Amino acid sequence: MKTENVVEYLQTNPDFFEAHPELLIDLVVPHPYGGRTISLSERQMLMMRERVKELERKLQDWISVATENEDLQAKVHQYTLALFKAHDLATLQTVITRNMNEIFSVPHAVMHLWKEHPPSIEVVSFADQHTKPVCIHQPLHDTQSWFGENAAHLKSFAYLPLRNNTQSVGLLILASEEAQRFYPEMGTMFLQRIAEIVGSALNPHL
Questions:
Q1: Which DSSP state fits 204?
Q2: Are residue 108 and residue 195 in the same domain, yes or no?
Q3: Range name among 36-40, 81-85, 182-186 with the lowest pLDDT average
Q4: What predicted TM-score, i.e. pTM, was given to this entire model?
Q5: Quick check: 107 and 98 in contact, CB under 8 A?
Q6: What are the pLDDT digits (tens) for 185-202?
């Protein structure tokens, strides 16, 4: 009899071991972590323990993610309140970039508004084409020079196009010396919220 026939039989006859309970004690199988043999019931118990441990690990991961998200939400709220305190464009621009470091611990943040710093065609095209933040490991076009003397040491970037409705009005760039601070596969939900908040705060001044 083939193995698959045995599996199929047991699957279609779930009451088999109820009719033959002695087999649960008499049957022995290899221990998964050693050379000795154990009863089928012991093996089932080990499998259940492993499943419980795996569920516990997943639960801890979910709790960690939930805690991190809650912390980020609180920081976004704090950042939003800080923007409300700025009553002119110059102060607002300072608050936008300075608080990226003070609240989110982002080491470098620069912002160019098209009204004050007309960008290259490539930069405008990039900002117009991307409706969501873009995280990469290399600076785009001529934006590396925006970081001045720090530019050569930066290894990861988050580009946040700023909009007035559908039209781009500027670009906020976050950067770090750490390659994994911003990376292409990372989620950008909170970055998107920040971009929308900054865009809304700037619109009355543009």
A1: G
A2: yes
A3: 36-40
A4: 0.70
A5: no
A6: 998 999 999 999 999 999
